[in-house]
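pasting for ref. prot 1 ->
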Amino acid sequence: MKLFTILFTLMMMSCTISNESVINGAWQYVSGNYKSDDSTTNITSDDVKSIKIYSNNHYSLITQFVSSDNFFAHSGLFNLDGESYTESFKIHKNTEKIGKSETFRYELNNNQLIISNDYMREVWEKIEE
C-alpha cells in the first residue's frame, strides 16, 4: 500500500508539470536550412552565434551574424501543443512582429531541439550546466 501511495503521488506530480518545462534551459544554435523561392540556404554555428533560453512559458533569443555587425533578437511567450510550438512575440527587433505569433513543429531528440516549418528547419543543442 505504501508503494502504491508513493507511485500515485509521483504520477500526480508529473501530471502537474507544464508541458513547456520539457525544453526549459539554454540552447545553442547548431544549424539551419532556410528556403526562399527556389533556393535553400544552409547556415551553421560557424556563420551565426545564437542562444535561445526557455523558462516555463517564456523564451528569449539573441543571434549575432559572425561576418557582420548584424544581430537578430526577440522574446515573448511560447506554447507547446502536441508537436506544435508557437512563439508569441512581446519584444522583436522587427517591431511589426510585436503582438504576432508564429507556429512551428518541434521535436526533441536526446539533447537536440529541432524546430521546423515549411520554409525552415533549425537544430539547437542543449547547453549543459
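and prot 2 ->
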Amino acid sequence: MSGWTGIIQYVDLARRRSWREKLPADLLHAYLGGRGLGVRLMRGCHHLDPLAPEMPLIFSVGPLCGTQAPTAARLTVVSRSPLTGTIYDCSAGGRFAWRLKAAGLDALVVTGRSATPVAIAVTPAGAEILDVPNLWGRTVHETVAALAERGSVTAIGPAGEHGVLFANIMMGEGNSVGRGGLGAVMGAKGLKGVVVDGDGTTGIADRQRFDTARQDVMRLFRASPVIFGELGIAEYGTPALVDLMRQRRMAPTENFRGTVFEASGNYSGPAIRREYQARKDGCYGCPIQCKKSTPQGEHLPEYETVSHFGALNGIASLAAIVKSNTLCNELGIDTISAAATLSAWGEARGRFPDGDEVQRLLADIAFRRGDGDLLALGSRRVTEALGRPELSMSVKGLELPAYDPRGAYGMALAYCTSNRGGCHLRAYPVSHEILRKPIATDRFSFSGKARIIAIAEDTNAAIDSLVACKFSFFGATLEEYAELLAATTGIDYSPQSLKEIGRRIYLTERFYNCVNGFDAKDDILPERFFVEAGSSGEGIEILPVDRPRFAEELQKYYRIRGLTPNGIFADPDFLAKQP
C-alpha cells in the first residue's frame, strides 16, 4: 500500500504487552492519518477522564511522512486534554515522525498506567517497554541524551510527571507537542519517553508525478514573500510577526488590557538575530527552516513565546524571555499557557511578574510547590480559585495566543469555534485578515466570516491529517498537496475531497465535545473583549468586539455546520453514520 503502512502499534503499559494490528484501507482513505486517524481511533474512548489509565495517547503520522513532500516530516498526538476537557490534537515536526513511519507504523497507541517509570522503544520488529526509574525527575535534555542512542526521542519533563495541566511533550530536536497538557496525560501513564528507530521507506505510487508536484510546491514557496521574502519566516522565524502585530495594534499586553507594548522591538525578529547571532534551523527535511537557534545550538523562542513572556507580562528584556523559553523546554511546559496563566495571576494580585520571578515560578509550577501548585492548573482554575474568573483570557479553558481578537474579527470567531479551545491554528484567519493571503478580508468586519472560518477549519483538519505544516500554505494551496497525495497513494484526491475529509474530522471532534457537555455556552470570548477597547492610535481604532454581530455570525456558523442554535447535533446518530 503506497503512502501508508497500514499498521498500528499498541502498547498496554499496565499489562506490559505490545502488539500490532492492521488498519483497514477504507479507514485510512476516510481519515488519511495524523489528526484524522487519531480522532477516529479515539472513538469509544472520547468520554473517558483525560488522566484515566484507559485513555489512549495516540502518536499518528500521515501518508506523506517519509517522502520528500515539503514540510511532511510531522506527526500528530491525539488524546483528551486535562486542561480543557476537549478532544485534543497537537502537531510537531522532526525526525521522530520520520522514524515512526520508517519503523513500519501509521500510529502508536499507548494505554494503561505503569506502576514504575518506563519508556517505550519502537523498532520495525515491535515495541519494548524499558524500565527507566533513573530518568524520572530528569529534564527533557537529560532524558533525550539518555535514550538517544536507540533512535529519535520524544519525552516529558518534570511538569508532565507532576501533572501540570499544560505540560507538553518535547521532541528531541526542540520541537514540542505544546498545548493542551498532553504531557500530563503521558506522565499519568508513568511514561517518561518514547524512542523510535527504523530504516523503512514510504512507497510512492507514481514517482514522476510526485516529483513534478513537489517542484510545483517548491516554486510556490520561493515566490511567497511570507515564506522566503526579505522579512519572511525563513529569514527571521515567526518573531517576524512581532513588528507587524504592533503595527496592527493587536499585540496582547498585560493580560490583554492593552494591544500595544512599546518595548516589543526588543524581541522582534531582527533583534533576536542581532543579539543571539541567530542561525536558521527547523524541522527535519523542511526547506523553510523557520526556527532559529544560537551558534551553540540553543533553541530560540517563537512569536507566541516572545510576545506572551514579553508584552503579556510587561517584560521588555529579551534575555529574560529567552531564559524563560529554555526553562519551559527543559521542564516540559507549554509556553503560551504558562505565560498567560502568570499574566492572569499577575493582574489578580495587582502586579505582573518580572523576568526573575517568572523563571522561579516556572520551576515551582513544574514541581508543584508553593504558588506553583495552583498555577499548574492553568488560568481558568487559578482565577476561579482567586474569585476573579473574568481575568482568565481563555476559551474552553485554553489560554489565548498572541493575537488580540479585537483587532481581527475572524480570529474572534475562530477562537470560539475551535474544537480544542482558544487556538489560532484551527482556522488561522491571521492569514487573510493580516497577511492578506490568499485573499484579503476586512479584519474589523464579521461579514462572511462564518463561512470562511468553516472552510478554513475543514481545510486545516485535512492538512493536519496529511500531516503538513500550515506555513506551507503561505505559498502552496490544497490543490498542490492533493496532487502530492494522489501521486503518493495512487488514489485520486482533489481539494474538495480533502475538504470533505476535513469536515468529517472536524464534526467528529465537535460531536465528541458535545457528548462531554460542550455547547454554545462554551463558544464565547472572555467578557473583556466585548466591553473594553484596545490600544487605539496611529490612525487605528481598536474597539470592543461587537457582541450582537458576533452572536449573529456564530449562529450563521452553526447553520453552516448543521448544528442547532445551541451548537449541538440535531442527529444523535451522527457518529454511527461515519466510517
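The chain has three domains: 7-196, 233-402, 430-577.
The mean pLDDT is 98.
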